[in-house]
Amino acid sequence: MDYAKIANQWPLAYSPLDITAQYRVEAEDFQVTELSNRILKEEGPHWYLFIEKTDTNTQWLARQIANHAQIDLRDVGYAGLKDRHAITRQWFSIPVEKRQPDLTALFEREEFTLIDQGYYGVKLKRGNLGGNHFKLRLRNVQGSKAELEQRLTMIKDQGVPNYFGGQRFGHDYDNIVQAERLFVSGKRPRNRQKASLFTSAARSFLFNEMLAHRVQGNVWQRPIKGDVFGFSGSLRGFIADGTAAESQRWRNQNIHPTCAMWGRGNSLSEADLADIEGQIAQKYEVLSQGLEKQGLKQERRTTRMLLPDLAWTWQDDETLVLEFSLGSGYFATSLLRELGQIDDASKV
Fold this sequence. Notes:
This protein is an alpha+beta fold. Among the domains are: 38-120, TruD, catalytic domain (Pseudouridine synthase, 2-Layer Sandwich), CATH 3.30.2350; 161-305, TruD, insertion domain (Pseudouridine synthase), CATH 3.30.2340. It contains 9 helices and 16 strands. The strands form 3 sheets. Strands 1, 2, 3, 4, 5, 6, 7, 14, 15 and 16 form a 10-stranded mixed beta sheet that branches. A 4-stranded antiparallel beta sheet has the order 10-9-11-12, with helices on one face. The mean pLDDT is 94.
């Protein structure tokens, strides 16, 4: 099955714009800063390091930290994977109960800078962060500036569909192909991290297919029959109760429609939404049943991504800088795809 071709057909929420631009022409064009939700202390069993890195992926830096600290790679903690072709600032943790390692040599390298540090009681685990702040520079912008700014204003007010970004699926969507092989053969890779990556890709693909169905019907941002509400950044959902308090939360954009993150157990969805989710699960039966056999439980993910702090400035007639914050697990590419043909120059 050609998963890349399927993904290319996932619909936009807004009418296409005749806009072209590039990002990641240089590493500084894509900057991501993790927003921590921890208060660090002056001592503790885990040393937390806030590191700025340039043109380096998270896993490679984690190996460098492990080598310099002379610890097992599994003991290095981080909250999420960050893009290589970028300037990113993120937290890492290492255990220091037995000894305090000397990382001086690591930070003598130009591509790494230690910004902050502190101590905490437990290892930093995947997903444990408050979100990310993005600063993106679009270069060689061609098209109507007025239309582009009008679209940005609309997005700031209404948000965009909460698709998983292409980086979740690997090159040419190969992570889903690998997930299929895993589910059919039952043979897990020796590398547990790869197995988790493949499983996550399959689950994310099913969600995007369900969301695409809602976008096609223009109901990604409003409830349908049998809908399940959820909170931004949460994997839990709840059935509408029709109370005044719930209505107020909806008007305040505190709750959102959801689609299933597929797994074992009964979905909370009913009626129209249950039909959508059931059709997608049946269409991709190898993926849906494989996820259930892996023991994953049914969860939810919101269908819209809000960007209330979205801001933009023109550096010159062809260079636009965007700034915004997103919760953990949300993708900046979900915004960019609604602005026109915005190409990643690092992949050319």
